[in-house]
Amino acid sequence: MESIDIKSEILDSDSSPSRALTRNPPSSRRQPLHPKVPAELESILAFCVMCIYEYTQRRNLSKMHSRAGQALVLAMDKSLHSQGDSEDDFAEAKRRAWWICVNINRLSKSFGNA
């Protein structure tokens, strides 16, 4: 969780909030984990994996639902829901990340009602 928080943290947000929001986010200083998945999607996918872990290994439905919500919020922040038929280098990865978030959220809600 700490690694995901650090990755998504906006630099300068504590010391200079107005400057932090006007600058572009810093680029990743490392290679992505997979060549067809941009590093910006890794946090979203990590939350999806953690969501499944919370349910399958810990049976913690509350944390499962929370992680699913975090993944969906990050995905919407990256505008994955409005990609449409764009065909950039990572279009397929973005579409798949979006739909895994949607389906993980559906599952987390249906397990919570069971």
TrEMBL record:
Q: Where is this region: Disordered?
A: 1-35
- Renumbered to this chain, the Polar residues biased-composition regions fall at 13-30
Could you name the domain of life of the organism this protein comes from?
A: Eukaryota
Residue ranges, compositional bias (Basic and acidic residues):
1-10
Designated name of the protein: Transcription factor domain-containing protein
Organism listed in the record: Lepraria finkii
